[in-house]
Amino acid sequence: MKRRKAVRALIVSEPDDSVLLLRMRRPDGNGDFWLLPGGGVKPNEGRLDALLREVWEETGLTVSSTPRLIWQRTHRFGRSGGCIEQHEDIYLVVAPRFEPTSAHNPEQSEVGIFREFRWWSAAALEGAGNDVFAPRSLPRLVAGIFAKGPPPYPISLHD
């Protein structure tokens, strides 16, 4: 099993309290799911540097505020016939609402599997019906951020 370090951003727009998600084709090709922008940490790259790079590449946003580590997640998925165990640090990024673009993404393989961007309110996430999120508990987690603010220390996610 290959292990991978990754970073993700919960991008919250002010003042309308919505979050930006990417819809992506599942690695197995069986449907789509919604996830937070982010990706792998390169060798000798710091996590915050990786976060700033990934957010820029995947959304076009230059992060100007100091991101806050809010969640940590370990999960497994299959890709290219193998299994990857990914360790993610998920940061809160607050920014004015913007029009996302993947024009800066140098990974053509990613551009081909990203389907769309969407800004979601907490209510829209809760009422999403059959949409699948990564992590699965994302609607509940986002509702908690909007209701109580970010956690005082990073929370380990298990789903």
Can you describe what's shown?
The structure is a single chain. This protein has 159 residues and is α/β, with parallel strands linked by helices. The chain has helices at 47-59, 108-111, 122-126, 138-148; strands at residues 2-14, 18-25, 32-35, 38-40, 68-79, 82-96, 114-121, 133-134, 155-157. Strands 1, 2, 3, 4, 5, 6, 7, 8 and 9 form a 9-stranded mixed sheet that branches. The longest helix is centred in the middle third of the chain and has 13 residues, at 47-59. The protein starts with a strand and ends with a strand. The mean pLDDT is 90.
Short description:
The chain is α/β, with parallel strands linked by helices. It has 4 helices and 9 strands.
Mean pLDDT: 90
- Percent helix: 10-25%
Assign the structural class, choosing from mainly alpha, mainly beta, alpha/beta, alpha+beta, or little secondary structure. alpha/beta
Number of helices: 4
Global outline: globular
Low-confidence stretches: none
Cα end-to-end separation = 19 Å
Q: What summary fits the major beta sheet?
A: 9 strands, mixed
Secondary-structure element pattern, one letter each: EEEEHEEHEHEHE
Number of strands: 9
Question: Which band does the percent of strand residues land in?
Answer: 35-45%
Radius of gyration: 15 Å
